[in-house]
Amino acid sequence: MGHRWKFFRAGGFDQVRIETAEDLLNLGQLDPKLWVALACPTKGVEFDARTLALLDTDGDGYIRAPELLSGITWAAERLNDISVLAESLEGVPLGAIREDGPGAALRAAASGLTAEGMITVASASTAEGEQAARAEAAWNEAGLSAQPLGAGTEAADAALCAVRAKVDDWFMRCRLAAFDARAAGALNASEDSFKSLAASTLNADSETIAALPLATVAPGAALPLGNGINPAWAARIAALGTAVVAPLLGDRQSLTEADWQAVQEKLAPYAAWRSAKPAGQPPEAEAIRDLERLARYVRDLMPLANNFVAFRDFYTRSGKAMFQIGTLYLDGRSADLCVAVTDAAKHAALASLSRICLVYCDCTRAGEKLSIAAAFTAGDSDQLMAGRNGVFYDRAGRDWNATITRIVDHPISLRQAFWSPYKRLMRLVGEQLQKIAGNKAKDIEDRMAAGAANAGKKLEAPGKAATPAQQAFDVGKFAGIFAAIGLAVGAIGTALASVVTGLLGLKLWQLPLVVAGVLLLVSGPAVVLAWFKLRSRNLGPILDANGWAVNARARINIPFGTALTQLARLPEGAERSLTDPYAEKSRPWGFYAVIALALLGAAAWYWR
To answer: How far is CA 173 from CA 179, 220, 261, in A?
Structure first.
């Protein structure tokens, strides 16, 4: 019989409970289709970066399911008590490490590091650094006896390495010429080689010239250190003579093959010491490095699985998930679902499919910069606009200045959807009234300006003939206008009178039903549309835009969304004074309404 799994329901789907070490070790048997995510990035998340780097065995910047499973297996093979994987420890107990097999070297390394029986991540990291420092110090001490020229040995070794292959090549050519005289002509540069150079612009850095022999090849010849050297190699051969030959053999104008072997032998100890520099890790340091890895895995594998295979920390609200990098305070609200963003435009293109209202902010702090996307899932979006400022608190508690740069607009709440038609109507009416008022004001200003101009012309030319008399008042024309206005007012009055008469004809208990029906007719479509969108809000596109491979429809329903964004509320038991000395004076709008209805009724009766 296989492992017995437990699941919990959250976000509209089943998620596996990972509570014990056995749950962790059997994740390989769990159908991958039941994993909430199959990959997560190593950057832009709130998790130990060193642990993620150790798990990312291919170094591509992502943790995938096989890598997580491999890390669990690696840790289990080195533990004789796997229960420590589920105990939220800060490291690995000494007694939990195996004394044989893969754990033997780790156990031996751990024995000398602790007297309290616990290898913490901090102590293992410190021990690894100290071991590396000791290896570096031992290497440096060994180098003191391997430097025949003292401080000049390093420069001499560099000068020797720069020409070693070319000098070896030249001496081998000379030995071949000594072996067979016919070889000398073939091993020197041919006349055709020089003819090919004649048509080009020559310089000492030419690769074609550098490929020619170092000097003239002859049986038993000595390498000249001055004149007679290939121009492309002259500077390097001169450095060889100054830094190597002169200090080791004394001043000379040429170098025999025996001399060449002698200087190499004198610098050989330094070359061997240089090659032995601890670029990697000695065996004991390697064991300490693996000990640190085991300590990190014991501490971090269980939390990682509950942010990867399941989103327990996010949906149970027991803590923040690894993709939640902080909290944004803005517009009297705190948004807990904030993710890191590198490219807001690219992120928004995919994240908009989540149907969640997203506010993108650029955050700055003491020269540092950070971009985030914050999900607003409660309240409304009336005051959310580009340029508004807020404060972002990261997981370390540091505060950042946050400025809105972009908004992906989606319904936030049913309350916002209910009032949205009326707000749009009021906004439209206000805009039209402002437009009409502006046109009227401009018309009046134009008339006044024209009148002032005409008056100025009359004052400038009093002797000129008077302007033609204005057109006589057309009574018939204005009578028609007045009649049209009367008909319009009558129609409006009739309509209002019909409404008032209908309302007055209803019984008292019917009035609330009529009002509710009107509200439902106006607000109903917006509320229904918002309800469907709010029910289909999905966390997946927000994380997928950051490189996650979310494997489930991780929904954020209305109750859960309300919990992710907190609205400002007065503390419980706080005293509140309702007296506002600067409040606008209240007007008897009810009395005004009654008078208006009476006048409309009278007008309707009159026109009928």
So the answer is: 10, 10, 16
Single out the residue of 278, 332, 322 nearest to residue 44, CA to CA: 322
SS3 content of the chain, % helix, strand, coil (to 5): 55, 15, 30
Quote the pTM value.
0.65
State how far the Cα of 119 lies from the Cα of 286, in Å rounded to an integer. Answer: 16
pLDDT tens figures, 284-342: 678 888 999 999 999 999 999 999 999 999 999 888 999 999 999 999 999 999 999 99
CA 99 from centroid of its chain's CA atoms: 43
Listed residue (28, 58, 27) closest to 42, CA to CA: 58
* Ramachandran area for residue 52 (φ above 0: left; ψ -120 to 50: alpha; else beta): alpha
Give yes or no for a contact between 193 and 187, defined as CB atoms under 8 angstroms apart: no
**∠ Cα 555 556 561 (to 5°):** 180
Q: Which amino acid is at 545?
A: A
Angle CA(314)–CA(320)–CA(324) in degrees, nearest 5? 90
Closest CA to 12 of 560, 533, 592, 548: 560
Length, in residues, of the chain: 608
Give Dmax (Cα) for the chain. 136
Q: What SS3 class is residue 368? A: strand
Tokens of 504: 């007055």
CA distances to 30, 203, 206, 248, 419 from 198, in Å: 75, 12, 13, 40, 88
Burial class (CB in 10 A: 0-12, 13-18, 19+), 79: buried
pLDDT in tens, 228-270: 899 999 999 999 999 999 999 999 899 999 999 999 999 999 9
Using CA atoms, how far apart are residues 359 and 367, in angstroms rounded to an integer? Answer: 22
> CA 241 from chain center: how many Å?
56
Report yes or no: 339 and 325 within 8 Å, Cβ to Cβ: yes
Question: What is the distance of C-alpha 328 from the center of its chain?
Answer: 16
Which residues fall within 8 angstroms of residue 419, CB to CB, at 6 or more apart?
Answer: 523
| Residue whose structure tokens are 């180098």 | 143
Q: Residue 130's closest CA among 373, 292, 327? A: 292
Say if CB 273 and CB 148 are below 8 A apart: no
By the 8 A CB rule, do 249 and 263 touch? Answer: yes
User: CA-CA distance, 309 to 51, in Å (whole number)?
Assistant: 17
